[in-house]
Amino acid sequence: MKKTTNLSNLMVIDIETVASHATFEELPENLQLLWEKKAARISPDQTAKEAFEEKAGIYAEFGKIVVIGIGFFTVQKNEAGKEEQVFRVKSLASDNEKKLLEDFIKVVKKFGKNLQFVAHNGKEFDFPYICRRMLINGLDIPYALDISGKKPWEINHIDTMHMWKFGDYKNFTALSLLAAVFGLATSKDDIDGSEVNDVYYKENDLNRIAVYCAKDVILTGQLFLRMQNLPIIKEENIIVVE
After folding, report:
1. pLDDT at position 167
2. Where is the Predicted 3'-5' exonuclease PolB-like domain (predicted)?
3. pTM > 0.85
């Protein structure tokens, strides 16, 4: 596996998504009809309402982004004057998706054209979902993220799930499973990804989702390092920025 050693060009990301509306009944009528057709295909054993609350957030056409977690590798000197690798993490969170995406674009543009994104299952989910929601919100996709029409070998973003597949496309491997396999510490009080929609709409707790997202960013960053046979970041060198 080719190693990536220039960590300063990397941005580790994770997104949390929910249904575009709290209930199926709140959807515009034309989208209700379209969701009914989709639900009949993807979840024939559920009503359209049940499927909407459980699965709509997975699809960019029927969902929205409420949190984007970002992480950066930097170097700083410790008390002894020795340089150490540091991982800074921040969760961008908002009920206003357009503002959230605009804030994310500002961060992306600061990195320039050499930026590489790192995500778990990013190529199938995070990267295209963000791009689709940007277009729906009338925003220009920043250069570093604009992968539309590019050939696979022209896309240099990193997907830890693809790294683990080694060309085997039969199975999805969860981040939590790889963390366990590689002996990476995980928090036991995290909410599950399937609970995000309820936490957002029923508990009204966006901050809880933001904290959960930041933990996944940290886990993805550490997993990436382990899969490169690089030292993971010391716990005291992981800085969560409010």
Report:
1. 77
2. 76-230
3. yes
Structural domain spans, the chain? 7-20+62-241
Phi, psi of 78 (to 5 degrees): -85, -175
Residues 6+ apart with CB under 8 A from 64: 17, 18, 19, 20, 57, 97, 133
How many CB atoms neighbour CB 97 within 10 A?
19
Residue 42 half-sphere exposure toward CB, CA atoms < 13 A: 15
Q: Which fold has domain 7-20+62-241?
A: Nucleotidyltransferase; domain 5 (3.30.420)
Residues 6+ apart with CB under 8 A from 153: none
DSSP string, 13-62: EEEEEEESSSSGGGS-HHHHHHHHHHHHHH-TTS-HHHHHHHHGGGSTTT
Please classify residue 42 by burial: count the beta carbons closer than 10 Å to its beta carbon, then call 0-12 exposed, 13-18 middle and 19+ buried. Answer: exposed
Q: Label residue 155 exposed, middle or buried (CB < 10 Å: 0-12, 13-18, 19+).
A: middle
List the structure tokens of 129: 């979902």
**Quick one: DSSP state of residue 147?**
-
d(CA 92, CA 78): 28
Segment 80-124, tens digit of pLDDT: 778 889 999 999 999 999 999 999 999 999 987 789 999 999 999
The pLDDT, as a whole number, for residue 78 is 77
Q: Which residues contact 140 (CB under 8 A, 6 or more apart)?
A: 105, 134
